User: Fold this.
Amino acid sequence: MGPSAEPRLRPTPLQEGPHKQLHQRLQRVRQRTEALIAGLEPEDLCLQGMADASPPKWHLGHTTWFFEAFLLEPHLSGWQVEDRRWAYLFNSYYDAVGERHPRPQRGLLTRPPIAAVLAWRRRVDAGLAALVGDLPHRPPAEAGALAALLELGLQHEQQHQELLLMDLLDGFSRNPLEPAVDSGPQGAEAEWTRRTGGDAAARGWRSHPGGLVAIGHDQEDPCFHFDNEAPRHRVWLEPFELAESLVTNAEVAEFIADGGYRRPELWMSEGWAVVQARRWQAPRYWRGDAEFTLAGLRPRPPGAPVRHLSWFEADAFARWAGARLPSEAEWELAASGPGDLPMAFGLLWQWTASPYRPYPGFAPAPGAVGEYNGKFMTSQFVLRGSSFLTPPDHARSTYRNFFPPASRWMAAGLRLARG
Ligand SMILES: [Fe+2]
Assistant:
């Protein structure tokens, strides 16, 4: 076990204001991660259903490593790293920080045990509280940069909260007993049912004249954004229409009944090869008239938005429907313009037709955190909005999520566009 020395710091009561707010937010976000595993069994914490997914314990360790590696070790005087070897286990993809354990083998890490990871989290939480308390003593530019890095760590942890649930759904879906991660009224699936439970939204189309428009994070806006959302820039759009609701289970059932998964003319060539190789016949978690969810096997309401399909399936469905996927610029314009775009946030990430590439003038953040987004800007597509698994204060109209086109374990659906 690592050293227990605590950092040498001037004792500073947290004052009212931004630093106190940051400290409270820190506590709230870190506690929420642990609440997500509260109902799990010890065996669940090492579950890794596939190479793309990670065990819950790894998510708890990795988010903690992020704070220790990027904030505490370089910026908190006297901080002693818990265990140097853990950087190898819990570094995800930061080449600048060093070598790491292969991702497909994260499920083999029965040690360190969860108790040690949780104790490490406590110690790192205390270190972060000390760092926040010390910010008023630092030069304003340094304090500002550290507060921004802390916020990045929190946003990162929130991203992992959603990943943790996606990965659990994947892992649990491979168990023939069809167990539930959480079937209670506070669980994510209960929230999904509440949000989609009413009558199916009437299908309508929203027209936009197009023209020269601006998308991306406005640098005057003080709200947090990831580097990939900037800079704001101009885009030319032809006139277009966007559906006011997401595609439903019933509509995809119609696509399937019409031979959707058996008609190569509907698919991109690469997608058709995936359909053949993996024998896809329906979205990822469909099982007869039911679907596998975080609450176990549940009926699949025809009017609810279809979820857990790949870009290839979304693209083929849109073609079959005589429509197309929206570009990310079309989506952002509709979601940030006057009048709310229905079903934009809190249900499902929505596939767009846009490849994930840097905006004109994009510059990754300096240092190792520059690896956060920029190096993944190839061979993936952008998803917009947010899902029922996304933490509530982790959504905005400029947010760019991204996944490879064959991925379908994330909570993704689609909205049609035409024109
Ligand atoms: Fe990460």
Observations:
- Residues 334 and 341 are 6 Å apart (CA to CA).
